[in-house]
Design brief:
about 550 residues; Rossmann fold; GMP Synthetase, Chain A, domain 3; 16 helices; binds adenosine-5'-diphosphate
Length: about 550
């Protein structure tokens, strides 16, 4: 029997319409590439997005066609988020930290029609423009005064002129909610990058779920500064969630160092931020060295890679900023789990609470999770059994863009490539990525645990644990460490630091001190590169 309710499609444009109507006066503040602070409201954002939608039409961008961006977090990028998807085209956020060859490969694969870019990426666009004959126009996201005098780019247009030439009336079209809204490529650490093509429906449902109190808990009273870039899985959906709830939005542009971020947090009264662990190191170092405090910041969402408990402790105990550990991936739009304590756990001693917070958390409503062994058998949720994590839900991909890589699903579940445990309360903990697992004598050693312990040592700035080959055990853990500036610690002292914290046979066999650890385009440790660098490393065999 059919129900008798309306079939209102879930569309990205509805988020903007809502923000304009109910939170029209709420501010969107951007630190721009040009160096100034730009300030306007959701009302202005909506009007300029409509102008931009007209401009896209004038450029001949059709329904379902891809529009690329190479841009930081800023108001013009927000306008693109809504104008492109809202008008039925597909927003393709390119990662500007990729190599020009990869940018060309991805833009061609996506068949991008127009490419919008921030001035910081002018050299990159000059390097790729002539290799992208399919791109009809390149639009510099700035005003006439800042347009490059000489640029080796065909069909170069000025963003502000495009917008100014259009009226701010545009009726957002209604169409099937299953139409594509945006496109994001995985980083492709193995093989070519693959595209996750999100729909309007998956985006809006993800937005509802991520805003929930035991998920990211965002509301109109919040001032949100996403440090996570809008080119990294849609800044974890925050540009959509901010409009859904009417939160004030603060966008930091390219200025992501500790000093600039801290100033913006304080000046704009930021209450909630979000980013990968590596960005918070710079911020914490800045507040620590200068003896500063956060006057408004209450929470920060940390995900993308495991948040070391030492970082949580610093935020929570020293600066009264509570850490919300979250897990997700490009293929999940990205949110899968968030680590919010249950009421009964709030009363536990601090150390026990921290141990729970180190987990990646419980599934947000809409996401189903299970762990399986190598034969695909479901493992118990006892917090001990570790196996590959599989997920399903309305914002999990069913296949990659253009069917690349074949059918990724196993019996309707998406295998994440992460190895995890799930406890009886439903808290999931990632122990490793399956390709990073260290297999010692046939047994798995979780590299994240080993890294978390090293990161708690006062002399350690960054630690990564990789498998090094071993004549007897096949693989044993090698700890690669960057020391804090001016700090001293020896191999023996670091290894002794593991005593009593972990099963003895998990203790790394060796420590390699380095000046820097390679980070990928999304700020994560590149373990495949580290493994290459240390391929010939000989572990002590005593
Ligand atoms: P990539 O890292 O390949 O660029 P994603 O940004 O989609 O792609 O990253 C997803 C992966 O990041 C997850 O599969 C997982 O391995 C890792 N990850 C994300 N959040 C966390 C977290 N909180 N703890 C540990 N690992 C995480």
């Amino acid at each position: 029997m059919n129900a008798s309710m309306m079939q209102q499609p879930l569309l990205v444009s509805s988020l903007l319409i809502h923000a304009e109507r109910h939170h029209g006066e709420q501010e969107v503040v951007s630190r721009r590439v040009e160096g100034d602070i730009h300030r306007y409201t959701y009302r202005d954002l909506a009007a300029r997005s409509r102008q931009l939608a007209n401009a896209l039409q004038a450029l001949g961008v059709g329904f379902g066609e891809r529009v690329a961006t190479l841009a930081w977090n800023g108001h013009r990028h927000m306008e693109l988020y809504y104008a492109v998807s809202g008008s039925g085209s597909v927003l393709h956020t390119l990662n500007p930290r990729l190599h020009p060859d990869q940018v060309v490969w991805i833009a061609e694969h996506a068949q991008d029609q127009v490419l919008f870019f921030d001035l910081s990426f002018l050299p990159l666009v000059e390097a790729v423009a002539h290799r992208l004959p399919g791109v009809k126009a390149f639009v510099a996201m700035t005003g006439r005064a800042h347009m490059p005098a000489k640029a080796d780019i065909p069909n170069l247009l000025c963003y502000e002129e495009l917008v100014a030439a259009q009226p701010d009336t545009f009726a957002w079209p209604l169409f099937d909610e299953n139409s594509a809204s945006s496109l994001c490529y995985t980083s492709g650490t193995t093989g070519n990058p693959k595209g996750a093509l999100y729909s309007h429906r998956s985006t809006v449902l993800h937005c509802y779920a991520s805003a929930l109190p035991d998920a990211l808990n965002v509301s109109a009273r919040e001032v949100i500064l996403p440090v996570v870039p809008m080119f990294h899985v849609n800044a974890w959906g925050l540009p959509y969630a901010a409009c859904m709830v009417g939160a004030k939005l603060v966008l930091p542009g390219p200025f992501l160092d500790g000093k600039n971020l801290y100033e913006l947090f304080e000046r704009e009264g930021v209450t909630l931020s979000a980013g990968v662990p590596t960005v918070w190191q710079g911020l914490l170092a800045h507040v620590e060295t200068n003896g500063l405090k956060f006057s408004s910041m209450r929470r920060t969402i940390i995900g993308g890679s495991a948040c070391p408990p030492a970082m949580m402790r610093a935020f929570q105990e020293r600066y009264e900023v509570s850490v919300l550990h979250a897990w997700g991936m490009t293929e999940l739009s990205p949110l899968g789990t968030a680590c919010v304590l249950k009421a009964s756990q709030e009363k536990l001693p601090a150390e026990q609470r921290l141990a729970i917070q180190a987990k990646q958390g419980r599934a947000v409503f809409g996401v189903d999770m299970k762990i399986v062994d190598e034969q695909g058998q479901t493992l118990p949720h006892d917090g001990k059994a570790a196996g590959e994590l599989l997920v399903r839900g309305p914002w999990v991909i069913a296949s990659y863009f253009k069917g690349d890589g074949g059918d990724p699903l196993v019996d309707g579940w998406f295998p994440t490539g992460d190895v995890a445990t799930i406890d009886a309360d439903g808290f999931m903990q990632i122990t490793d990525r399956s390709k990073d697992v260290i297999k010692s004598g046939g047994e798995w050693i979780g590299s994240i645990d080993l890294e978390n312990i090293a990161m708690a040592h006062p002399a350690v700035a960054l630690a990564a644990c990789i498998a090094a080959s071993h004549p007897k055990w096949d693989e044993r853990p090698l700890l690669v460490v960057v020391r804090k500036a001016g700090a001293e610690v020896t191999r023996e002292q670091l290894l002794a630091f593991y005593d009593g914290k972990i099963a003895r046979w998990w203790t790394p066999d060796d420590v390699a001190f380095v000046d820097a650890i390679p980070l990928g385009a999304t700020g994560k440790v590149q373990k495949n590169r580290l493994r290459e660098i240390f391929r010939e490393h000989r572990l002590p065999t005593a």
